Each structure stands twice: as structure tokens, then as C-alpha cells.
Amino acid sequence: MIALLLAIGLAAASVPPTAPPDVPPLRRTATPAKVLDRYAAALAAVVPPHAISFEYLLEQTGARDLLQLHRVIRRGTDQRDEILAVDGRKLEPPAIRITHGRPDRYDVVALAPKPDAYAFRFVGSQRDGRHENYVFETTPHGAPAFRVTEVTIDGVTFLPSSISFATDAHKGAGTIAFGREGPYWVPTIATARATYAKLAAQERITFSSYRFPTALPPGTFSRPHPIPTFKAES
Description:
- By secondary structure, the chain is mostly beta strands.
- It has a single domain (4-211), classed as outer membrane lipoprotein receptor (LolB), chain A (Clam).
- It has three helices and eleven strands, in the order H-H-E-E-E-E-H-E-E-E-E-E-E-E.
- The chain has helices at 4-7, 32-44, 108-111, and strands at residues 52-61, 66-75, 78-86, 89-99, 118-128, 131-140, 146-153, 160-167, 172-181, 184-196, 199-211.
- The protein has an eleven-stranded antiparallel beta sheet, covered by helices on one side.
- A hairpin with a 4-residue loop joins strand 1 (52-61) and strand 2.
- The longest helix has 13 residues, at 32-44.
- It starts with a helix and ends in a 23-residue tail after the last strand.
């Protein structure tokens, strides 16, 4: 059974996670318009890594209970997905799937609502340590099947720290949280709920073990068998 977050229509452009630009903090009297200006500039300034590796734990309950641990390696639109464990049982060897031309469904730049495609309504600010985050309700122009309903903008990077979404497929809805990992801005937790054949289903994906290799072993995206460990960026 494919992941709920994919089945309900979560999809984005084919770009990997991105590095947040360095931006000066706003003054406490910042207006919503100024926050949105910084937000648009931050999205336009992101830089992708050469390659990325991470693990994610998939927990699904409801229509079917499922627990899987995956390791993913991506470079551009090439992806290697290794299932390391199922329901707490380690797979030896891992089940491996290699795909090409696969979009990154969790890319923050592609998922983030854009001012030219959405109307933004300022809800309020939230204290996050020593800085403020800014919450906006978002309404798309038109009626897309997948739509962002709320975005929280990080007050340091001015990239989304969380995105809430809804989709017509299976009455789905959920939230994706983002944060800094080294020099990059990546997903940390994604949750979703939907209805299948009148049965409620919930899903949680927890991302971890991020690495940003400077080089990948030969055959990473062509050989469905274990590969040697690669060197990560310092």
C-alpha cells in the first residue's frame, strides 16, 4: 500500500531541499506586507544541494496499520528508495526501488504558497525562542485539487516552518514541518489524514539522518543491490 501522503495527491516540482539564504532579522514592528516581501525573496534565493540522503519512518494507522523504515538517496530527479525494516523487522537485504524523473514531493519551494497564486491573510505571530514566526491563512486563486490552507513563516530564514494543506482526493488534509539541517532547509515531520472506503486513515512520516554527499558510489541509481557507504559533506 502506498503512503497516504502520496495517495492523497501531495506532489511538487522536481527540485531537492534547499539552503536558506542569510537575511537580517526584521524589527518587531514588521508589517505583514514586509514579512511577505522577505518570504518571496527567501523562496527565490534558495540553493539545492548536490545530493541528499535521509531516512524516514512511515507510521500508518486506520484503514491499514503499517510501519516502515526507509532510506532515500536523491540527486536531481533520480531516487533510490531502500526499505530497511517493516513492522520492526529488519529486511536483509533491503527492498530497493530505483526511479528516474521523480519529483521531490516535499520540496519547500515547490510546496510553499506563492503571493501570485494565493491570497494571504495575516493571523498573528508566534514566539519561537528569541524570534517571532508569522502565521498566514492562504486561499488559492482558483480551485486546485491540492491547496495550502495555512503557512507559518520562520522569522529568521523567512522560509515556511510549517505548511498545512487540504486536497480533494479522499478528503485529505495534513501538515508538513520544516527546519534547518546543516546549511539546508528540509522536511522534519509530515502528517496526513484521509478517508478510504469510509474508513479513516492517519499517517505520520518522521525524517532523520540527513546527509549531503559530495559524491555517490557508481551504480547508485542503476543497481538494485546494496552500495558502499559514501562520503558526506563536511
